[in-house]
Amino acid sequence: MKDTELLAKQIRIHALKMTSQGGSSHIGSAFSMADIIAVLYGGAMKVDPLDPRAADRDRFLLSKGHAGAAVYAALAERGFFPVEKLSTHYQDGSDLSGHVSHKGIPGVEFSTGSLGHGLPVAAGMAKAARLKGEQHRVFALLSDGECDEGSNWEAILFAAHHQLNNLVCIIDYNKIQSLAPVAETLALEPFVDKWISFGWHVIEVDGHDHQQLKDSFLPHANSTNKPLCVLAHTTKGKGVSFMEDTVLWHYRTARDEEFNAALAELEKSA
Questions:
Q1: Count of structural domains within the chain
Q2: Residues near 185 by Cβ (< 8 Å), separated by ≥ 6?
Q3: Can you give the pLDDT at residue 22?
Q4: pTM of this prediction?
Q5: Which domain holds residue 119?
């Protein structure tokens, strides 16, 4: 477990540096899901940096593409491309765009940014795998705020109808979206009941507890014929005290004293 916790720490440090150097935003969103990404790329998913297009690989789609810095950081730490490339993030001419892109980036399956697209594509990929008799799984990570998008609910219906138990939808449920709390923007509760009533198997976890995350991603964690929703309760900005649970750090870029203070906190963390 220490390996994935160390990976999560490195993801946060890289993401902080990348967004600060490039002047991009969404650091709170990247920190929110860093533990989930670390567990996925730390062993929960079947991926191989030496063969990123292997036919039997698990597929991962980051639907909340604005937090792509965390995925780039994980891919670099796993060896999909050199860590030094991360310093080009969001720079002129770089292929490491602010919203995650698959173009020329090994390990990224699909470009995202406009919200509400990741799960519909993932459901289609899971259905295609089923038709072809393939055994890999498809993971899609969504923000809670993007569950406002109607396209997601069409995909939720589709996946349950086709009994796609090779599909795992993870919700980064930090309860804050771009400009306000989720509950004040468009309330989702009773959220678990909605997924269950749509025909999904649901597991609720602490999205910063690596053991709970690992257990929920085990193939046998879903012994039903239903698609799986892992509802991960998280804290926006997790890891830096003055960024945690605030709307401000959805768009704000950490620079100068704020950057130094954030980096110091992350480097001291276990």
A1: 1
A2: 145, 148, 177, 179
A3: 93
A4: 0.97
A5: 4-268
Report which of 171, 235, 177 is spatially closest to residue 200, judged by C-alpha positions.
171
The enclosing H or E element of 191 equals: helix 191-197
Distance CA 40, CA 60 (A): 9
Which parts of the chain sit beneath pLDDT 70? Answer: 1-2
Of the candidates 45, 62, 50, 57, the one whose C-alpha atom is nearest the C-alpha of residue 4 is 45
List the Cα angle 72/90/96 in 5-degree steps.
40
Q: What is the pLDDT of residue 2?
A: 65
Angle at alpha carbon of residue 127, lines to 191 and 121, rounded to 5°: 60
Q: How far from the centroid of its chain's Cα atoms is residue 249's Cα?
A: 17
Spatial neighbors of 209 by CB under 8 A, at least 6 apart, are 35
Residues 233 and 182 sit within 8 Å (Cβ to Cβ): no
Run of H or E residues at 71 = helix 68-78
CA atoms of 262 and 12, how far apart (whole Å)? 10
Instruction: Please check whether residue 160 is in contact with residue 198, taking contact to mean a CB–CB distance below 8 angstroms.
Output: yes
Identify the CA nearest to 156 among candidates 188, 184, 178, 179.
188
Q: In sequence order, which ranges of 88-165 are alpha helices (DSSP H)?
A: 118-132, 150-161
CATH number at residue 188: 3.40.50.970
Q: What is the per-residue pLDDT across 137-170, written as a single tens digit (0 to 9) for each? A: 999 999 999 999 999 999 999 999 999 999 999 9
